[in-house]
Structure formats: structure tokens, C-alpha cells
Amino acid sequence: xxxxxRLWRSVEDIWNGYLEHPFVDGLGAxxxxxxxxxxxxxxxxxxxxxxxxxxxxxxxxxxxxxxxQMFSELLHGTLHGEMALHRAYAAExxxxxxxxxxxxxxxxxxxxxxxMLNHASRGDAAAVAACLLACAWSYNFIGNxxxxxxxxxxxxxxxxxxxxxxxxxxxELNGTAMTLLNELAEGKPERELEALEEIVVTxxxxxxxxxxxxxxxxxxxxxxxx
Length: 226
Known about the structure:
This is Aminopyrimidine aminohydrolase. There is one protein chain. By secondary structure, this protein is mostly helical. It has one domain: Heme Oxygenase, Chain A, CATH 1.20.910. It has 10 helices and no strands. The protein starts with a helix and ends in an 11-residue tail after the last helix. The model has no long low-confidence stretch (mean pLDDT 97).
């Protein structure tokens, strides 16, 4: 049994919760409020910058060239694939890249990325791979679900989102992320596997909180003058 098979049993209920979330379902149905999507767009853009740092950390901690190349593939796909999608959508909404870059991460966004970077800095390459997995895998999971539930995407303003995360390129990228963790987890003692599993479960919970944050257009509970 692959380690990701074990992980699936631990996150299945959480991820099924994504599918029922109004923000996620609104993406597939094309009914999501534009302001909520713009909030996701800006928050996820700054999230992806921190997410990319994880891959750079992983490449640095890679035990061999093959692992280094896999982290590099994930980094390239994020910087030149996902972030390009965000910039394209931003242009449609009249949002410049400068505005994206100036976005202040929300409280949930800050907590999520800080959690991942903390574990990535303290752990080995497997810990970094565990930090990365929930985002890539769950977005592919959501994309595949939405394209099946809503097969007619012709008039959906978020069609490109659904097509991207259910598409061949992102599916391949997610496959790399899954293979990476499976290979790095191989032969590890149970206590280390449990620690990796906890990371994947916790980041899965953060993913739900991220969807919720975007649905509610949350930033911080109190504003500061910066």
C-alpha cells in the first residue's frame, strides 16, 4: 500500500467537505460572487509565493538529484502554471500584478503558510513534501469533481479554473507531488510516518479554512495601520 493510500483514509471526510462548500460548488456552477473570487485570487496569489518557497526548500534538502528535479518540476509548474492563471484572471477583473503583489495575507493565509514553512524548515525533504501535498492533491480532487458534476462549462466564468485543476498538466503535477511523498516516506519508521500524516491532515484543515475565508471575504478581525 502506498503512503498516499493511508493518507486518503485520514483526509477523505475533510476533502468531501470541500465539495459541499458553497465557494467550491459556486466555482463549478459558475454562480460564485465575483468579489469572493477576486478575494481568493489575491489571497491565493500571495499564498503561492510562500508555497513556492517550500519547493525551493525541498530542492535544497533533497537527498539525491532525482528528488531535486521533482521539487524543481513542482516549483516550475507553480510559478509558470498556477500563477499565470491568477494573472490572467486578474487582468480580466482589471487587477494588476502590482495589486496582487501588494495584497496583505489574511490571518488564515498567514497561519497556513507559516505552519508549512515552519515544518519544512525543521524537517527533512519528506516533511517538505508532506507540506506541499494537500494543496496540489485537493485542488486536482476538486477540479475532477466539478468537471463531472458540471460537465457543461461553456458559460461558466470560472471555466478556466475548472479546466486548469482538472486538466492533464495539473494532474501530472499532482502526480509528481504524490510520487515524491510516497518515495520519501518509504522505509521510514511508524513514528515518522505519523508525523508526516499529521502534517497532511493539518494542511487539509487549513485548506478548508482557506475556502471559508474566501467565502466570507475575511482578512483580519481587526485592522492595523501599516
